[in-house]
Amino acid sequence: MLQFDEVGEIKKGPWKAEEDEVLINHVKKYGPRDWSSIRSKGLLRRTGKSCRLRWVNKLRPDLKTGVKFSAEEERTVIDLQAQFGNKWARIATYLPGRTDNDVKNFWSSRQKRLARILQTSSASSSTNSHKSTVQVKAPAFLDLSSVEAPKFSSSTDEDSAAKSQACSSLDDNDTIKMVPFQDLVYPSTLTHEQNTLQLDYDTSQKKLFPEQESHLSFPQIPQLQSDFSLALESQDFVNRLGDPNFLDEFEPPCFVPDRSCQIEGRADSNDTVDLDTLISDFPPIDLFDDIEPLPSPSEWP
DNA sequence: AAGAGGGTCAACCGCTACTAC
DNA sequence: CGTAGTAGCGGTTGACCCTCT
């Protein structure tokens, strides 16, 4: 329903096609400026602010309207948000066709989703003191015998160092390399039987990562998953998931389930988390905290 | 089929920065 | 330098749509 300012007859609410047309004509004539003159000339009963917003967010000719954020764009936003914070307008300058409003809405949705998932996860594990178990059902073609259990059950400095670099990622040649990643919690044991990987977590291991105590409940798999998420964005990588020898490229404790795998978290509950959901929901907000800052905008291609 | 819940999007509001006088 | 007007930005809200139960 349209609203009117009692004093100035300011029109609010959704824009009509006729109003858009007037606005577009004004911009064609004078350029994207003098927004308040639109009202003073009696062309529209909208404030200058409202006109500017409408142009910037909806009428600009170069906008990607109705197109979802690509994986590349999502990565860019996550990356730049880690670097710049909530500077949506600045971030939007790196994304052709996207407005600050688009970026803001994307981020806000993502935050809500993450919050909801983490809330659910912590609720599901809150009744369990020190143990949680995650099972990964791998597709038949994966040879789980090639997966070795990590040896992270003690808390020596050596292991701690190993943990800090125990996250795999892809280099330019799509091969796996180890990179520092401190946000992971590793299973105390990893066993496999037929087509199921079982990861047991001893959540009492607070000594190693006291600052990560909040992560020592269920969502360990999402944290591992963040790495898969990065990896799976390489199409070639995805294609090779069907290769029976694929896992041979991985070093323990890394394993890469197929997208169709189901991951079950059993922290005193029977939660089932769909892998695709996890992939789309991660990497976590702080995933990029430990990587080097991006080059300055002038250095961008 | 209907209601609830969640996600997305457009638009507004309040504040700050900038600019002209 | 101070002030008023304007532009721009980030946060928030509400409507609408879709999915699930």
TrEMBL record:
- Annotated Gene Ontology cellular component terms: nucleus
Can you say where in the cell this protein is located?
Nucleus
Gene3D superfamilies per UniProt = Homeodomain-like (1.10.10.60)
| Predominant cellular place of this UniProt entry's protein | nucleus
Q: Which residues form the Myb-like domain?
A: 7-59, 68-111
Q: Which keywords does the record carry?
A: DNA-binding, Nucleus, Repeat, Transcription, Transcription regulation
The protein, known as: Transcription factor DUO1
* Pfam families linked: Myb_DNA-binding (PF00249)
Question: Which stretches make up the HTH myb-type domain?
Answer: 9-63, 64-115
